[in-house]
Amino acid sequence: MADLISSWSNKLEAVPPSHCIPLHERAVDPVPIVKDIPVIDLEKAKGEERLVVVQQLLKACEEYGFFQVINHGVREDLMEEAMEVYKEFFSLPVEEKAHYAKEAANNTARGAATLYSSSAKHYDSEEHRYWRDVLEHSCNLDGQDKITWPDNPPRYREVIGSYSDEVRKLSKVILGLVSEGLGLEAGYFDKELGQRMLVNHYPACPNPSLTLGVGGHCDPNLITIIQQEVYGLQILKDDKWIGVEPIPRAFVVNSGLPLTVISNGKLASVAHRVVTNTTQSRTSIGTFICPEDVVEPAKSLVGPNNPPLFKSFKWGAEFMPHYLSKKSVYHAALEPFKIDA
Ligand SMILES: O=C(O)CCC(=O)C(=O)O
Ligand SMILES: [Fe+2]
């Protein structure tokens, strides 16, 4: 049975050696929670200010690789209910959660529901583990994976079904704006893209200075849309970690490594990590929007004066194995696909 941290962490007074991360990775310096990560009002994209919003969003992806969205169209009651469902799921008895406990999933677009702990397998070291449990499953349009989703809490499939539909719509709005900003051919992202739930649960920790919820990494998908309510997420900006302020009812959005490739280097994929705290557990609901299988610089962005900076590659078969073996070296997964200038 997987060793789920949410099953035993509340009985601990000290961090076990297995979960003390190496000194060089620990979050030791004080990290400010900043207000300068752009907050984008998506309602404005429907009116005269659309161009301003497009520019704001593109600049955010270039400078921070992160932004938050408000007035995004996902119903507030659904956001609240999804958060409740996930909190209930992670507080179920261990025997109940064990139905889903498997080896770490491989982050590709398809896959049955999987629950695993602290994800050392996603990193190149097996020696330490992060302070989180993860529930992960795909939610593709054909609905075929739904039978693998948890059925406890009993409303899980209904609530998360509606939630994933609404967040899919939001992802299309965001990718439409990205596409406009980059000047891609119309409908560039209007394909059936893969979608995954990746829900992290970080229990309160007796000594946060010894642990990390998740270590620094860039995301392997196009964009990630995160719902959070408790602070913990930090991003690496100009070689310094800064904290992302939780804004009620907002989503945090970040651009992943494939978007750096599609934009031919224009959009950033920025490293981020999660710290723990002593008093509160933190649950973050992540929606990962995955690229189509072939990833390459968009044709409209390359030409005689703009040579492609990356080769075309298959996301699942070629990119993901590199990503999973080199995740802690933030941009390393792109190295094999770079074209020397
Ligand atoms: O918990 C968070 O806010 C972010 C988690 C994350 O970076 C990830 O799952 O890739
Ligand atoms: Fe991430």
From TrEMBL:
GO molecular function ontology, one term from the record: metal ion binding
Domain of life the protein comes from: Eukaryota
Every Fe2OG dioxygenase domain range: 193-291
Xref: InterPro entries: DIOX_N, IPNS-like_FE2OG_OXY, IPNS-like_sf, Oxoglu/Fe-dep_dioxygenase_dom, Plant_2OG-oxidoreductases
PANTHER family linked: OXOGLUTARATE/IRON-DEPENDENT DIOXYGENASE
Family, as annotated: Belongs to the iron/ascorbate-dependent oxidoreductase family.
Protein name as it appears in the record: Fe2OG dioxygenase domain-containing protein
Organism of derivation: Anisodus acutangulus
